[in-house]
Fold:
Amino acid sequence: MRILHHLPLSPFCRKVRLALHEKRIPFELRAERIWERREEFLGMNPAGTVPVLEEENGLVIAESYPICEYLDEAYPDTPLMGRTHAERAEVRRLVTWFDTKFDREVTRNLYFEKQLKRTLGLGNPDASALRAGYANLKPHIEYIGWLAETRAWLAGSQISLADLAAAAHLSTLDYIGDIDWSLNDAVKDWYARVKSRPSFRPVLADRVSGLTPPQHYADLDF
Structure:
């Protein structure tokens, strides 16, 4: 069986899971305690990070972007990277935006500080990082809202990896109660459409010991 090594709240793992489900590719989830640095896992990915995809033929692919590019090339029936050169360029731009800029300015300052840092034994959250994360979140929400208002989906006329990347980050932050959906109706409506898709339901079913999501988290109608 194809195996995806993951952490439940990692937005990068969630993005890959959503892509696999959108493409209807069967797989088994295997939670990886990356802080334990298992020799077998480090043999697959010396960086010691998730996600890591193990294909049935023994192929191992590490990191979310190479995995998603591979999935779109190997299983092209449900394209998530766009159909034209221009569409693919825009999808790549937005995926990079969310997985680099949004992650650096928002996700790391909130999810890492509030949840993952303690799990890794790195101490308490940094108050200045939390303040920066909340401050940075607002302009990002405005930008997502602008994309949602001017396009059918974030990168164009079809749902793409850009939507999955954005929704993965927002779902992680929503789980820890850090998204105020009243800030932007366009973002709320777009996210409701994404999380209502069958591919999102297994993600919404995730629960982390000792951390309960807000009541609206798995409610498809908020």
